[in-house]
């Protein structure tokens, strides 16, 4: 991934145990990120649009379900404040391990010239 101009820790599990937790991080770029800089990212097209958005939706749903009891307003506000719908021309990367318990999803949104990272470590 290209080196960002600014890194914003958007949201994180309040009391992670043993390195477990969930994180949302925003990487901002001053200059336009070129496709060559997005190694291993997949370009979003009409054909893979649903699949690309599904990875972020899965992360959001898991966090919302986990924090139902606590009603984590910070997370709700975070998700509402960040447009996470990918569009054709954007890029995404997804990797999972342990039967989808550990996931890492990165999305590059061209309009915002940013990469959002969604990390889940169980």
Walk me through the structure.
This protein is α+β, with helices and mostly antiparallel strands and 122 residues long. The chain is 22% helix and 33% strand. It has a six-stranded antiparallel β-sheet with strand order 1-2-6-5-4-3, with helices on one face. A hairpin with a 4-residue loop joins strand 5 (102-109) and strand 6. The longest helix is centred in the middle third of the chain and has 18 residues, at 49-66. The chain is globular and about 35 Å long. It starts with 5 loop residues before the first strand and ends with a strand.
Summarize the structure.
The protein has 122 residues and is an alpha+beta fold. It is 22% helix and 33% strand. The chain is globular.
Q: What distance lies between the first and last C-alpha atoms, to the nearest angstrom?
A: 24 Å
Percentage of β-strand residues? 25-35%
Overall number of strands: 6
Rough outline? globular
Main structural class = alpha+beta
**What is the residue-averaged pLDDT?**
86
Low-confidence stretches: none
N-to-C series of helices and strands: EEEHHEEE
Helix content: 10-25%
List descriptors:
122 residues; alpha+beta; six-stranded antiparallel sheet; 6 strands; 33% strand; globular
Question: Layout of SSEs?
Answer:
Elements: E1 6-12, E2 21-28, E3 42-43, H1 49-66, H2 73-81, E4 91-97, E5 102-109, E6 114-121
Antiparallel strand pairs: 1-2, 2-6, 3-4, 4-5, 5-6
């Amino acid at each position: 991934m290209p080196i960002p101009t600014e890194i914003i820790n958007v949201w994180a599990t309040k009391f992670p145990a043993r390195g477990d937790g969930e994180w949302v991080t925003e990487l901002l770029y001053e200059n336009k990120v070129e496709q060559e800089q997005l190694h291993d990212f997949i370009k979003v097209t009409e054909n893979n649009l649903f699949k690309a958005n599904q990875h972020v939706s899965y992360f959001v749903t898991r966090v919302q379900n986990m924090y139902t009891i606590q009603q984590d307003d910070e997370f709700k506000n975070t998700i509402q404040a960040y447009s996470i719908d990918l569009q054709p021309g954007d890029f995404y990367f997804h990797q999972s391990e342990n039967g989808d318990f550990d996931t890492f999803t990165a999305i590059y949104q061209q309009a915002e010239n940013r990469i959002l990272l969604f990390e889940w470590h169980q």
